[in-house]
Amino acid sequence: xxxxxEWRKLAILLASIGIANIGDFVYLVVINIxxxxxxxxxxxxxxxxxxxxxxxxxxxFWTGSFIDYRSKRAVMMVTYGLRAAFxxxxxxxxxxxxxYSILVCLSVAQxxxxxxxxxxxxxxxxxxxxxxxxxxRSFCSSSAFIVGPAIGGAMILATSISWTLWANALFxxxxxxxxxxxxxxxxxxxxxxxxxxxxxxxxxxTAVAAFLRNHQYITFIYVVFLLVMLFSFAxxxxxxxxxxxVVGLSQVEYxxxxxxxxxxxxxxxxxxxxxxxxxxxxxxxxSGLLLMTAGYLMYAFSWSFWSIAAGFIVLGLFNVFVNAxxxxxxxxxxxxxxxxxxxxxxxxxxxxxxxxxxxxxxxMADWFSLRLTIVVLALAMAVLACLFAISVFRPGNRPFFExxxxxxxxxxxxx
Length: 415
Prior knowledge:
This is Major facilitator (MFS) superfamily protein. One of its GO terms (cellular component) is plasma membrane. This protein is about 80% helix and about 0% strand. By secondary structure, it is mainly α. The chain has one domain (about 1-415): Growth Hormone, Chain: A. The model is unreliable at about 410-415 (pLDDT under 50).
């Protein structure tokens, strides 16, 4: 009976996150159309990639300090509400400046949501269920990647962009309602909540730095993983140009490739959800990252639709293994008392490097060629993935990947 109640809570959390994920992808389709229709500029559309990293740089210094001392569920619900409100305002925006202002506000809400969501999930999901939960969550995210754009496109054809956005806002309202059905999972003593000051943020920054120094292997694994994902992100930003101008595919063929990648991710997530408890965590992470990188290498050296499709299927299949595995590793080793701060600081660094990578890739593509740029990125990604896998599979590091390792054990030194 207790197990049924526990999985009921987790199912509600998955429903909330899954509905919001669909909303995110519907929004992504519509906002690209709006910006391109208003400006006719590919550069303005490309600017959408920059908004979130820039906002993260401005907010991640202090979001963790806010989140860790307050109700994570409440933060998530408020951000859902804000996202619904701002998306509903988009059809009323008279010009591109207002559109981008609303996008900044949406990115601020998202910058609070991600650390709060990670921490709340860690508190709600028992350690022995984290692998399977993260696998099912990956399945939901992968499905949203296919379902969201399909819903968005169908709604635009059936109604209009404005009505699609207003309906999209309801996804986040429903997600907030589901979240309201869940327990708080923590008791907040308002009297002990520190004020959000520069001194408090500096103190929290020092605490995070000390934790990362004291847990160097955990820091190494997560930082290398983020670096590999940065190479992946840099290649993704040039995906449309590479497939169409370098390989010579049509817009229809590119759209089909995106669908193939999504289907590969859904299949991988479904397999992982079924067999998560039978796959060791270090194989999910180490082997998964190597195989995902192999998919990017196939993509970098591709010459036709089917050669790219093969690479996309491989990276789609194993991307979910890596993400679910790393989410589990992170939840098992970062103390919940400071998870918001650690997540925010990590994302701060990630955002800084995302912008640098986007600029560097653009410069490299202009100076040399896009093919050479993508090949260099894929090879660098492969080297990092090999170093990562060697470290993960080293026998002495096995205890870090035991399923029963808890963040409470890791956090004994963290205060």
